[in-house]
Amino acid sequence: MTTSTPVCGIDFGTSNSGVAIVRDGVTEMVPVEGAHTTIPSAIFFPAKGEHPLYGRAAVEAYTIHEPGRLLRSLKSILGSELIAEKTAVGGQYRSFEDILVGYVQHLKAKAEAHAGCKISRVVMGRPVHFVDDNDVVDARAEAKLGDIARRAGFKSVAFQFEPIAAALSFEHTLASDELVFIADIGGGTADFSIVQVGPARRAKPNRADDILANDGIRVGGTNLDMRLSMSAVMPHLGSHAQSIKGLDLPRWPFVDLATWHRIHTIATPKNLHTLQQILSDCAEPELFQRYLDIIRQQTGHLLAARVEQCKIDLSSVDPAAIDLNGIVDDVTVTAGKHLFETAIVHELERIAATVAATLTAAGLERSEITTLFLTGGTAAVPAVKTLLLALLPQAHAVEGDLFNSVGFGLALEAQRHFARRKAA
Questions:
Q1: CB-based contact 256:267 (threshold 8 Å)
Q2: For position 423, what pLDDT does the model report?
Q3: Residue 309, exposed/middle/buried by CB under 10 A (0-12, 13-18, 19+)?
Q4: What is the pLDDT of residue 155?
Q5: How far apart are CA 422 and CA 104, in angstroms?
Q6: What is the pLDDT of residues 269-327, one digit of tens each?
Q7: Which of 51, 107, 333, 352 is the most buried (most CB within 10 A)?
Q8: What is the mean pLDDT of residues 20-33?
Q9: CATH label of the domain that carries residue 37
Q10: Contacts of residue 9, Cβ cutoff 8 Å, sequence gap at least 6
Q11: Average pLDDT over residues 327-343
């Protein structure tokens, strides 16, 4: 029997999301889709206006070509003007904010079903920076996420940096104090924190003095997917083709098709008219026709998923195939590790620079870090993991739960935060 009102933490991720609750002093991840404690951040709106599907069910409906529209990576629009715009889904126009409210409501309902009671208090995870180098837009994005959470039914909403939440999750397992460098690299951002953690610090009501530095950039798994797609797939769709006059084709159609959160923006009447003009002016129209077929058949997200799977496969095989069956049937594409790692050099350089900046902000040398804690799915990409290990060679590397560490830590933060507020 529940004797205390649960609180929860929500890790709303670019690629995947999770929820954890604390009740009667016990922290646990919530099964959010069947027995799974993570759910893809995906929403499918059936064409006839039925209730939307979420997570794996959404991806499955899209994959088997149910009539409707799939939306993914919507967290990426929190810091953009798109959040206020409307899009056609389920037979009507809805704002992206309203769509996100529905998604957070879905996560809240899962938490409440697991807890057996209403939950009104939440700590929402957020990246260190929603956008790069713009504090005003960053603050606006956090405020918008707070609005979304309150509209979803939460009465009290707080925030915590996702890498700090990961640090709290790691601290929960420790028997001694450590100086830890947290590397939380997910679908949309790479976030870093340097934190003093340990059992003696765990019960402190205010942990501000333990946090030595935070930094982050908008580089994540979706960026790596985009680079791989641009290098391996888009040339087969005309990205290297020229116009009849010998000019390069516009780059934006290929970048948008290779970018998860841009795919759903391509098929507007204005864009379709422009794409038809590009086809008419293309010196290799058979290539660009493949591109147009993907847009008209709405298989862009399926293509992105196949590229993502190739990225994952490259962790264990070289080369790996990109399965285009049902998308472009007359093309076979393979990608090797060298091609992939060459394609993502810019992203790796940005990660390295941000790691260095985080150390500088903390006033620390690399040798002073005792532990490197890795979390987030992209931290497991071999090129990324190898880079991080090389940047902090003397630190003991710990790979946390790649997909649950942040959510678990957010619930721990919720327990601490709301207990402190109650005491005050």
A1: no
A2: 54
A3: middle
A4: 98
A5: 25
A6: 999 999 999 999 999 999 999 999 999 999 999 999 999 999 999 999 999 999 999 99
A7: 107
A8: 96
A9: 3.30.420.40
A10: 19, 20, 21, 122, 123, 124, 125, 160, 165, 407, 408, 409, 410, 411, 412, 413, 414
A11: 95
Domain annotation covers residue 355: no
Task: Report the C-alpha gap between 184 and 373 in whole angstroms.
Answer: 8
Confidence of residue 1 (pLDDT cuts 50, 70, 90): very low
Letter for the amino acid at 91? G
Q: Which domain holds residue 23?
A: 7-177+401-423
User: Residue 3 above 70 pLDDT?
Assistant: no
pLDDT digits (tens, 9 = 90+) for 44-96: 999 988 899 999 999 999 999 899 999 999 999 998 888 889 998 998 999 99
φ, ψ (nearest 5 deg) of residue 315? -70, -20
Total domains in the chain come to 1
Structure tokens at 204: 């402190």
pLDDT at 153 over 60: yes
Q: What is the mean pLDDT of residues 192-214?
A: 94
Look at the alpha carbons of 192, 196, 198, 199 in this order and tell me if their dihedral is positive or negative.
negative
Q: What CA–CA distance (Å, rounded) separates 110 from 55?
A: 13
Q: Per the domain annotation, does 164 fall within a domain?
A: yes
| Secondary structure of residue 292 in the 3-state scheme | helix
**DSSP of 124-163:** EEE-S-SSSS-HHHHHHHHHHHHHHHHHTT-SEEEEEEHH
Report the SS3 class of residue 346: helix
> What sign does the dihedral 393-222-157-108 (CA atoms) show?
negative
Q: How far apart are CA 285 and CA 130, in angstroms?
A: 39
- Does some domain include residue 262? no
Higher pLDDT, 422 or 107: 107
Distance CA 406, CA 411 (A): 9
| Token pair for 34 | 């069947």
By the 8 A CB rule, do 255 and 262 touch? yes
Q: Choose among 274, 273, 278, 227: nearest CA to 249.
A: 278
- How do strand 42-46 and strand 68-72 relate by DSSP bridges? antiparallel
Is 147 inside a domain boundary? yes
